[in-house]
Amino acid sequence: MALSPQNPGPVNKSKVLSAARDVLRAEARALAATGAVLDAEFVRAVEIIRAGSGKVAVTGIGKSGLVGRKIASTLASTGTPALFVHPVECLHGDLGMLCGGDTLLALSYSGETDEVCKLAELLKERGLKIISLAGRAGSRLARAADAAITLKVPREACPYNITPTSSTTAMLALGDALALTLMRLSGFGREDFARLHPGGSLGKILTLKVKDLMHTGSANPVISHKKTVREALSVMTLTRFGAVSVVDGKGRLLGFFTDGDLRRGLQNDDGLLSRRLETVMTRKPSSVTPDTPAIDAARLIAARRIDNIPVVDKNGKPVGILDERDLIEVLPLARGDE
Question: Same domain for 184 and 214?
C-alpha cells in the first residue's frame, strides 16, 4: 500500500541524489546531441534576424510557450527587439501586433502543433520570414519555415520518456545560443546591457564609475616624494588604506607605496623607515581616472592582484584612492569577464 502524502516516510538520500543526477545527465546528453547537429539552418536563422527591419515574435503553446517567453526576454535584453505572442490570441485578433519586417520564431517540439503551424503558414503568406525550432526536420512547422532549426533529443529525462524535460532544456539552450550569437555579432556591449537594465543590480554595477566609489579629500593618502617611509607610514595609518600616493613637486603622481612594500623592504633593510620615498616607492604605478567604469577598475585590480589603486585627474594628480573593498559587488563580475 502506498504511503500517503501526509506521511511519506523516510527518504533514501542516495536514491534521491542518484535520481537527480540521472535527470541532469539525460538533459546534458540532449544538449550535447543538439549541439552536434547544429548546421547551416542555424546560420540561416541568424542571417534572417539580422536582415529583418522589425522585431522577433516568439510563439509556442504549453511548455514551448513558457520557453518561448524566456527566449523572447533574452533576445530583448541582449539587443534584439523581441516579444512573445500567443498563437491562439494571434489567430483571434492579435495579428495586428505583427507587420512587415518582423520575423516569427515558432517553437514546437513535435513540429505539428496546429495553432503554431497555422500561424506560421499564415504569416508566411503575408511575407514574413519564419524560423522554426522543432524536434523533427520534416515536420509541418519545419516545412513552413525559411530556417528550420532541429533539436536532437535522445530521450526525455522523465523515466517514462513523456514529460517535456530534456526537450525543453535543449529548446531553451538553442534560444540562448541564438540570442547570444546575435548579441556578439551586433557588438552589443556591457554599456548597452546596462542601459536596458537600469533598475537591476547588474545595470547599477555596470553604470558605476570610479568617482562614485573613490575616497577623496582627507581620506585620500598623498605624500611628497621627499618624505621618509616613517612619515608615509603615519599617513597610511591615518587613512587606513595601507597605501599612499607619492607625488612630485607639482603634485603629480610619481609613485605608490604600500604596506606590502613596507613588509618586504624591512626584511632586507633595517634602515628602511629613514629612507626617502622616492628611493623605495613603486614608480609609474597603475592608476585609473574618476570616469573609469568601476568594472574596469575592478578588472585591473584583479589582474594586478593589488588591494588599492590611485585615482588621477587629467593632469596626473591623485584626486582619490579606490580600495578593493569598495568594489565588493563589482569584482565577481569582473573576474567572470576575464
Answer: no
* Structural domain includes residue 195: no
184 and 216 co-located in one domain: no
Read off the C-alpha cell for 71.
527566449
Q: Which three cell numbers stand for residue 191?
A: 554599456
pLDDT of residue 10: 85
Helices (H) and strands (E) counted in the chain, each on its own, are 13, 11
Q: In whole angstroms, give the CA distance from residue 9 to residue 11.
A: 7
Q: Which pLDDT belongs to residue 5?
A: 58
| Residue listed under C-alpha cell 536532437 | 152
Is 314 a domain residue? yes
**Rounded to an integer, what distance in angstroms lies between the CA atom of residue 28 and that of residue 110?**
20
pLDDT of residue 298: 86
pTM equals 0.69
Q: CA Rg, the chain, in Å?
A: 29
* CATH code: domain of residue 244: 3.10.580.10
If asked whether residues 177 and 85 sit together in one domain, one would say yes
Name the stretches of the chain with pLDDT < 50: 1, 337-338
> What local confidence, expressed as pLDDT, does residue 270 receive?
84
In a domain? residue 96 = yes
d(CA 152, CA 162): 16
Start-end of H helices in the chain: 13-37, 40-51, 63-77, 87-91, 114-125, 140-144, 166-186, 190-196, 201-207, 229-239, 259-266, 294-304, 331-337
What pLDDT is stored for residue 325 in this prediction? 85
Q: Please check whether residues 20 and 136 belong to one and the same domain.
A: yes
243-247 vs 253-258, strand pairing mode: antiparallel
Q: What was the pLDDT predicted at 1?
A: 45
**Which residue segment(s) compose the domain that 159 sits in?**
16-188
Extract the C-alpha cell encoding 89: 490570441
pLDDT at 65: 97
Q: At 98, is the secondary structure helix, strand, or coil?
A: coil
CATH no. for residue 156?
A: 3.40.50.10490
| 10 within domain boundaries | no
